[in-house]
Amino acid sequence: MRRSAAAGATTAVAAPGAEASAGVGAGPIPAPAPAAAAPAPAVRQTLRTEFPFQLPRGYVDESGTVHQDGVMRLATARDELVPLRDVRVQENPAYLSVVLLGRVITRLGSVPMVHDGIVENMFASDLAFLQDFYRQINAEGHTRAAVQCPHCAEPFEVELGGSRLGES
């Protein structure tokens, strides 16, 4: 028997699997949980390799059509090494980003094939946007962190890094 401190009442405590005798707390006691639960099946995480974007201005093709929506994939080591052998990059290192972006942009509007010549004819603001986007998805990933409010213990996410170098 155990005594409740709040009301001074006595309640019966039965052994696991037994039923309490008649009186206070009588009735069936639920069966105990299984001793060893089977391990949960491994959840397979998929790696996200393509990221949609929308250019600030858009690429204007030879017919005058503006293309803004596109997709960029994650870069491989090969994507970053092959352009270093390109003569244009060797003569002008600033051309590296043009060649590299031409390799990793998989779709741009209805343009049939994206290559460095397409990137070369983009507006400077779109090129700067794509360079930042490339850096974000390849080098930095996301800069969000899960945190908890110290006052109410409510979980939420915060952005740790800015979108431009030097911001935080």
Entry summary:
Helices cover 24% and strands 22% of the residues. The protein is of the alpha+beta class.
Molecular structure report:
The chain has 168 residues and is an alpha+beta fold. The chain is built from five helices and seven strands. The strands form three sheets. Strands 3-4-5 form a three-stranded antiparallel β-sheet. It is elongated and about 80 Å long. The relative contact order is 0.10. The C terminus is likely disordered.
Overall outline:
elongated
Strand content: 15-25%
Class derived from helix and strand content = alpha+beta
Order of helices and strands: EEEEHHHEHHEE
Mean pLDDT, to the nearest integer, reads: 79
Strand order of the largest sheet: 3-4-5
Main beta sheet strand tally, sense and closure: 3 strands, antiparallel
The gyration radius over C-alpha positions equals 31 Å
Helix proportion range: 10-25%
For the structure shown, list the relevant keywords.
168 residues, two-stranded antiparallel sheet, 7 strands, elongated, disordered C terminus
Tell me the layout of helices and strands.
Blueprint: E1 2-3, E2 10-11, E3 50-60, E4 66-73, H1 77-81, H2 87-91, H3 96-104, E5 105-108, H4 116-120, H5 124-140, E6 144-148, E7 155-159
